[in-house]
Amino acid sequence: MLANTTAGNDAVGIQVLLNNNTVTLGNNLQVIANSQAQESLAFNAYYYYNGGTLKPGLLTSLATVTLSYN
Questions:
Q1: Per-residue pLDDT tens digits for 43-67
Q2: pLDDT digit string (tens) for 6-38?
Q3: Shortest CA distance to 8 belongs to which of 63, 62, 53, 51?
Q4: Is-above-0.70 flag for pTM?
Q5: Which among 6, 35, 57, 70 has the fewest CB atoms less than 10 Å away?
Q6: What separation in angstroms does the CA of 54 have from each of 5, 8, 13?
Q7: Which residues contact 64 (CB under 8 A, 6 or more apart)?
Q8: What is the SS3 assignment for the chain?
Q9: How far apart are CA 44 and CA 67, in angstroms?
Q10: C-alpha closest to that of 15 among 44, 54, 51, 40
């Protein structure tokens, strides 16, 4: 889960999925077995309740993706 970087609401974050499977952040992930001339990566992001008291307010988060072609 990506943490909320806006102070005041640690009970919610962002969960990232690839092809409807939860992505474990910080791990290498093979997204394409055999590349074609063009590819689409099916990433999605959803609110994720992390437990605790929910409060109204902003939710911001940041992720960096590094692609490596081998």
A1: 999 999 989 998 888 999 998 888 8
A2: 988 889 999 999 888 899 888 888 877 777 777
A3: 53
A4: yes
A5: 70
A6: 15, 10, 11
A7: none
A8: CECCCCCCCCCEEEEEEECCEECCCCCCCCCCCCCCCCCCCCEEEEEEECCCCCCCCCCCCCCCCCCCCC
A9: 17
A10: 44
